[in-house]
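Hi all, long-time lurker, first post. I run a small reading group and we've been trying to get comfortable going from sequence to structure in the token notation. Rather than ask abstract questions, I figured I'd post a concrete chain and ask someone more experienced to write out its structure so we can walk through it together at our next meeting. Sequence below, copied exactly:
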Amino acid sequence: MRPDVSRLTRGTARLVLRPFRTEDFDAYRDYHQREDVYRFLYSRPPEADALRANFEAAMQPGLARDGDTLRLAVERLEDGAVIGEVLLKLADGAAKQAEVGYIFNPRHGGSGYATEAVEAMIGIGFRVFGFHRIFARIDTLNHGSVRIVERLGLRREAHFIENDRFDGTWGDEYVYATLAREWQAARG
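-- Answer (accepted) --
Happy to help. Here is the structure in token form:
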């Protein structure tokens, strides 16, 4: 039985991870229009129509087929502000593997929100969906993201040299990962 992702909500000490709602669009647009956010996403911020389409897709979560992505809004408990999003992308259903990702508004950086939300999302991946392995792909120059996954205890498994190209510039990438048994053992 697959979990009903349309109702999936998880709380942490300071955050709520939940499906996107129509009223989240302004916050979503705010961080999705920033060049500094898209620097490590290997694309430019989406234009108006594409941005709206991306948001509509984020409101239709699913993890049924390889390539499907579950995106959850990250809402700060103290004021209800949507400060970013976390995602799980089904990389290989047969091998029970997913990729974790995250996008946060830099205005809310430096408070540990991303680490807290990513930890919760990885937990969802293992406990709710039963994944065997969860990994993150990170541009080697994205030092903030590297710190997040290292704080959470993910293992660096690969360093790909010039494996991606954006705007005529080659980029390197790290792959970090953890197995369900490792994650569980580290958290008791």
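A couple of things your group might point at:
The first helix runs from residue 25 to 32.
DSSP finds six helices and eight strands in the chain.
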